[in-house]
Amino acid sequence: MISVLFRQANDRPCGLHKYGLLSRLSCLFMVMLTFLGLGLTGFNPAAKAAQADVLNIYSARTPQLIQPLLDAYTQETGVEFKVLHLSKGMAQRLAAEGDNTPADIVLTVDISRLAELDEMGIFAAVDSPVLKQNIPAKWRDPDAHWFGLSTRARVAVISAERVNPDELKRIEDLADDRWHGRVCTRKGSHPYNRALLASLIAHNGEAAAQDWAAALVANMARKPQGNDRAQASAIHAGLCDVALMNTYYYGLMKYNVKKTEQQEWAKSLRIVFLNQGAGDRGQHVNITGAGILASSDKYDTAVAFLEWLSEPTAQQIYTSTNYEYPVNPTVAHDAEMTSWGTFRADELPVQSLSDHAPTAQRIINITGW
Question: In terms of DSSP bridges, do strands 242-246 and 183-184 run parallel, antiparallel, or are they unpaired?
Fold first, then answer.
């Protein structure tokens, strides 16, 4: 061991070749302290726990939307995170990695993506009274493999100048002839639109949903393209009068200080919550969610993090920072979101959207959406 320490003391990083024996002995003393410190760490249960308290996350969420949550949890608990952001190809990567994946937790958007991963059999069942209490049954998997953590309403946005809100009451209204040449959307195959169509299948049946999709395509002002913000830009430019959009985009545009033109897009819009009439089913909503990998050796740490995400502190971050609606019914909406108006959500279990997604995709292909 002494010879090893002398070799380390003679290494050039100490800068000892210049300074002679006294400095060399001083450096040797520092190296011995470092060695002993490392040895003690190896036998220190608390230090081992600290090293273990690093969760690896595969995330399909935009980094800026989850970082405030991760930072808050690290500050509160000391648990740290390594995040791999995968906007595409998460299922393929996890399939290739199998049980050797370093991921402990998956964070993603849309029920169809959660269901796709669940069908691979990669999620652990989580028996947590906290999650059951904080998350209503309609927002979580019946087998406790995944949990919704926030919701977003897929609403209609209309031109504040050219459209009277009373013209549009239900999602079904977009099939009416009065919207001919006035509708913009992103592609129907995007999970957000596919889930919306799946909800129409669940409520109205496949035939009616296909008729609606065909009429929607006939009413479009242009070929489906871009993302939700692109539809806001098109309305602002006068290319169309109505579009489909997830609510949180409105907040992100309204307060975008880097791309201030998006603030103008938001000003030109008005949000319309759909299917709110007496006896109607309510506004279509979707979720963001998470699951714990069955292969993870940090199950307890991962469960504690998911539980925290369902608690008021994290739920308030979702609503105040991300402009997403909390799943925890005890948490109030942010004041900005409340200013958009209140709505009654569709009570359809989110799992049903996944069940009807293949049929929805078939209709999208047939109708050219």
Answer: parallel
Residues 6+ apart with CB under 8 A from 32: 5
Is 61 in the same domain as 122?
yes
Domain assignment present for 339 = no
pLDDT per position as a tens digit, 279-302: 999 999 999 999 999 999 999 999
How confident is the model over 265-270, as a mean pLDDT?
A: 98
Residue type, 293: L
Question: φ and ψ at 84, to 5 degrees?
Answer: -110, 115
CATH of the domain at 104: 3.40.190.10
Q: Return the structure tokens found at 368.
A: 């050219």
pLDDT digits over 173-227, tens only?
A: 999 999 999 999 999 999 999 999 999 999 999 999 999 999 999 999 999 999 9
For the chain, how far is it from start to end, CA to CA, in angstroms?
A: 71
Provide mean pLDDT across the span 79-95: 95
Look at residue 301 and tell me if it is in a domain: yes
How far apart CA 63 and CA 83 sit, in angstroms, is 9
* Count of H-run helices and E-run strands, the chain: 17, 9
Q: Residue 45's pLDDT band (boundaries 50, 70, 90)?
A: very low
CA 330/CA 315 separation, integer angstroms: 10
DSSP reduced 3-state for 242: strand
Same domain? For 358 and 219 the reply is yes
Summarize pLDDT for 334-359 with one digit per residue, the tens.
Answer: 899 999 999 999 999 999 999 999 99
Residue 114: domain span = 52-151+286-334
Q: Which of 112, 133, 123 is closest to 286 using CA atoms?
A: 112
Q: Do 196 and 244 meet the contact criterion of CB atoms below 8 Å apart?
A: yes
Domains contained in the chain, number: 3
Q: Which two tokens stand for residue 69?
A: 């949550």
Rounded distance between C-alpha atoms, residue 265 and residue 347, angstroms: 31
